[in-house]
Amino acid sequence: MAVGVERLEPESRALLELSVVRGLPDQELAGMLGLDVDRLRARREGVMRQLGADSDRERETLAVLLRERASGVQPSPRAGAEPAAEREPGPGGPPDPLPPAEPGPRRRAVLLALAGGAAVAILVAVVLALGGDDPPGFSDNPDPPEPEAPRTGRLEAVGALDGAGTAGITGPEGRKILRITVQGLPRAARGGYVIWLYDSISNARALSGSRRGTFSMRTPLPPGFGRYSYLDISREAADGNRNHGGQSVLRIPLEQVPGA
Q: Where are the domains of the chain?
């Protein structure tokens, strides 16, 4: 079976990585992407048919091949499999390892907090590309009042779009939480907005993303977040690119975010 993953659209490759390679359960992945489970399964089956896997057995074989490619394991011989010497390496190298399976909510939290950030970037890309809504942590409504409201700094517009926002950081050292509210940006019919820790286009780390132009969110900050210079929000196309696209719309120096 010739795999040919490289010819797939970026969002289709990302879907296979999350669902097949990383092994997220369908219910959990559908919830994370804001999709119906049946729609998720139909989309995955369609992508696997593009790779020549028309039957259930062929799809099982393809899943094994994809996992072997991602882990760097030499594929075991099987009927219909292409010779190992003719197989091309998977794009981008092996994915970040996931910890052992845990209960759904806990495993989801671990996924979103992976130190390498690759899983978050993949999740954002799939959400924006497949037309789901927001990853966990987002809400159209402001956060409920707290005993002591966290202080916030103001995000300033840096592009052509009108918008505003505030950001603050709470929590003890090692468990910092970013709280951000954005208002007034147009909802993206295709693509969406991504929140970054940012130094430059080539040195930025995605935290999460939304297709809405007005939202509030809370998300854990990774260790070492303070080495970045800015908190940045950019408008991104639904092209599966995990890197900053260069179209920033809101930004604040990280040192001006209370609690940083």
A: 5-95, 138-256
**Three-state DSSP string of the chain:** CCCCHHHCCHHHHHHHHHHHHCCCCHHHHHHHHCCCHHHHHHHHHHHHHHCCCCCHHHHHHHHHHHHHHHHCCCCCCCCCCCCHHHCCCCCCCCCCCCCCCCCHHHHHHHHHCCCCCHHHHHHHHHHHHHCCCCCCCEECCCCCCCCCCCCCEEEEECCCCCCEEEEEEECCCCCCEEEEEEECCCCCCCCEEEEEEEEECCEEEEEEEECCCCEEEEEECCCCHHHCCEEEEEEECCCCCCCCCCCEEEEEEHHHCCCC
| Backbone phi and psi for residue 99, each to the nearest 5 degrees, phi listed first | -70, 170
Query: May I ask the CATH architecture of the domain 5-95?
Result: Orthogonal Bundle (1.10)
What mean pLDDT value characterizes the chain? 74
What is the Cα–Cα distance from 89 to 93, expressed in whole angstroms? 8
pLDDT tens readout for residues 59-102: 888 888 888 887 765 545 444 444 433 434 444 444 444 333 33
| Residue numbers in the chain where pLDDT is lower than 70 | 1-3, 10-11, 31-35, 72-150
| Identity of residue 174 | G
